[in-house]
Write a structure and sequence with these properties.
By secondary structure, this protein is α+β, with helices and mostly antiparallel strands. It is built from six helices and seven strands, in the order αβαβαβββββααα. It has a five-stranded mixed beta sheet. Strands 1-7 form a two-stranded antiparallel ribbon. The longest helix has 12 residues. The N and C termini lie far apart (67 Å).
Length: 180
């Protein structure tokens, strides 16, 4: 795989300043191949639907995009590895600007405020709304998905609950044993 292939987005939807000049509504759905690539990127078991709806417009210094990402997906339970289906509806309000700072190195310390979180760099006169939507989905995912039957499955396998395995659980067991 070449460097260009490894950095190409899984679902690209390029919008230019000219596209946004008079305002425009965009609606797009990822095909099967794109959904498979997005699922691999986000470590999902499956991504059955991924759609974007957005209103785009020009703003001072770039392009504004306000809309919604919708996805039907399956994550892996953090405790049991069982499938956890989910439907995500995630609104976004993004600004793609020419003068957004270049990315910082991983060891650099930065300070941001809430207004900075939805600012993305404009690449010349264009932006990739599809890739931004995938990023929005990644932020909306449950970081520790849990299957509804996880507690039961774990108990059947002998895994103790947090209360039973807490720092004083071993002492409580000793206390309840008869003196030898």
């Amino acid at each position: 795989m070449s460097a260009a292939e490894s950095t190409s987005p899984e679902f690209s939807l390029i919008v230019t300043i000219d596209d946004a000049a008079h305002g425009r509504k965009i609606s797009a759905e990822a095909d099967t191949e794109a959904r498979e690539r997005i699922a691999a990127r986000l470590d999902l078991i499956a991504l059955d639907r991924f759609t974007i709806t957005a209103d785009i417009r020009t703003i001072a210094g770039g392009i504004g995009a306000k809309g919604t990402v919708r996805a039907d997906l399956v994550q892996t339970c953090a405790a049991t590895a069982m499938p956890v289906p989910a439907t995500i509806v995630e609104p976004f309000d993004l600004r793609f600007l020419r003068d957004v700072d270049a990315p910082v190195g991983e060891d650099d310390e930065i300070e941001i405020n809430s207004d900075d979180c939805d600012l993305l760099p404009l690449d010349g006169d264009r932006m990739d709304l599809g890739d931004a939507a995938v990023q929005s989905l990644s932020l909306a995912l449950d970081p520790f998905p849990r299957h509804p039957d996880a507690d039961r499955v774990l108990a059947e396998k002998g895994v103790l609950t947090e209360e039973a395995a807490g720092p004083f659980a071993a002492l409580a067991k000793l206390r309840s044993k008869p003196d030898a």
